[in-house]
Amino acid sequence: MNIKNNIQKVSLGIAFFGMVCGMNSCTSQKEYSQSNDIVYPQPKIAETNLQNPTVIGEPFVILGENFKNAKVYLGDMPCSEITVSATEDTIKATLPRIFDQAQLRVVNAYRQEVLSDNEYEPVYPLTENVEYPTFITRGQVFAIKGTNVDLIYEVEIAGQKIEVDGSKANPSQINVLAPSQLPDEVTIKVSTYNADSNVPESGSISVEDAGEFFDPVEPVVLFDFEDGVNPYEPGDVTPENGLDAGNGISKGRGDHYLTVRKADGDGWTSWMGQLYYDTPIDLVTFTDPHLSFQINSESSQGYFQLQIGQNGNDNGADFKASNTGNDGDNYVFRATNNEWQWVTVSLKDLELSDWGGGLDKVDIKGTLDFVKLSYKQGNGANPYILNLDNVMITDGPVVVAKELEGFETATYIWDDNGGGATHSIDGGSMNAITGDHYLNVHLNGATGWNWTGALKMDNSNNLDLSGVTDPHLSFWVNTGDAKGNLQFEIFQNDTKFGGNIDTENYFVETNGEWKLYTFRMSTLAWSNWGGDADKPDFTGTLDYIAIGFSTGNIDGERYEVNVDGIMITDGPMF
User: Domain total for the chain?
Assistant: First the structure.
């Protein structure tokens, strides 16, 4: 059984970066190579508990040696959940859910690889309980849900056949890009890897034109450093590099970030190293893919160039005001003065330089073979300093229009309603998700629909939204091991409006994890809480926004809400 051709091959041959030209000079960029005199440790497979044929998505163990920071593949398809023992002789991993009959392949930290003696054939379960959408939008992504729907490899809509790549999908949902030319009514049928599935064709589905905005797909995270492993690869010179080594700065988002610094940077002359993401990224379901990341240059500046591979070709690009929208970016990232700031660049509009790789333009419906961030000082100041976090491919830009509250100081404005809730900075049992601090509000034995108090934010007063194209209220929530609920209050044109975080259950549970909420303000279900206006105007100015800590449907249980990173974003936050 052959996987459809749209599932791209993972390129893991020994790479040579070549002569990559920067703005003012060309620099030889070296990687691990057979031409080096150093003999790198060669991985060896002694034993594995994999059976043949083997059930997809199953965990397995490999015994052998020289498995430092190993990656594992079935042919060209990467395995997941890889852990390597401290002695580097045991790997635990999980099979991919889609792969050709192939050998097991292990690639270690030195890019040396070994193949198993045996080939392994996948066993695919049935695709069942398929739910088609009730409508689809021309030229936009829609979802098919069910059991093992990631094992769908082709979708046919009104006679048009669309190949889909389930290797990047959830077993319970696969996203499909609808053609831009469709009749007003269509039917959908699918083909699956297990032909015995016999999934029935859909009924009649209505088709509509795209509106002003689109619902983005989930981002692809290239580097967030949350595994605690430093992925930095040194270049011709080796700068200081490591996790969480910033000087006098807070965290970006999450617990870890990457720091690179060099006291005597020399502009374009020295190549200092790279971050290399070599897992193919299928862009077909993205409407407007962007490369987005956070930077913090402390009191100086830093820079890297971008290199992208696609269809066996590649080329590079630089960051400048014309593609980042920030005047401070001029072949160097703007000075952030100890603040974390977002850089977001459209791949559709990205101007590639001729580095000799043959790629003229990014195909935003194709597959990226790799993404490299190549560290140079560029036009930056001396010393070179750059802290980096949350490198992602996002569906749309990441634009913070207004930061409302980050809790980085001990002061905040609490409007008490006599509801008995306890509130404090860092009062929960978790770390902050953005920066170093967050707000905790809790109440034992809560009664339903008790407005325990409200967070009032100075930055939300007289909030002018006229320059924000698609205003979203975005923030992080963690309910610990309890349940929580929030309501929102805004005031405009002598009218108070209220909205809810969850209009179905009126409570949320995050089970100790931070969850990002990002609401399009114009489509949130606002109720009139007093006044004559029919609805808010989100192209004008709001008198204020307040977040009400209302217990909702939580009755007789512990109520807890931890919030962090409250902001107005232009479009969704990712």
Answer: 4
